[in-house]
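Narrative summary of target 7.
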Amino acid sequence: MLPSLHRLKINTLKAQVDLRDAVCRSLAKEFEAEGWSEKQRSVIHHRWEVALMDKHCLQLALEREERLEREENEANRQTDRQSGSRRGENKTNP
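Modeled conformation, tokenized:
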């Protein structure tokens, strides 16, 4: 994959993780507020659980994408080193 696509996916996933985190914090604050019925608190709790699960899934996807980017960058560096050493060999052996 192109490095810029990895970076775009990583940035998008980071933004989505941050958004879910903000939603979780907001729902937790809402849950603690006075005046909610048990049914309303149950709905808020369920929404919090869903947002938290989404956040964890997105975090795993982010970690996977970062790992793939690192592996691809490392493979590219090794290929560049091998290409460079081959060019050097060609210069010394006409």
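The two ends are 36 Å apart (CA to CA).
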